[in-house]
Amino acid sequence: MDINKLVANRIHELRKEKSLTTEKLAWTAELSKSCVAYAEKGLKDAKISTINAICNALDITLAEFFSVFDKKIE
Length: 74
Description:
single chain, mainly alpha
């Protein structure tokens, strides 16, 4: 699976775990709703700064965000 799709799936999974809407996550991360939606759908490459803002809003570290990718990326 490509890295953009893995990142998109991870954002979606974490957002759902926290019971947040895309709008609420965007507001908390201080990002636009479209920015979060594009990242979550894998419509465009998410910048590391975007992923970091999302992680901060979800109260997790970048290491925690990427920890699940150890065995998925080839």
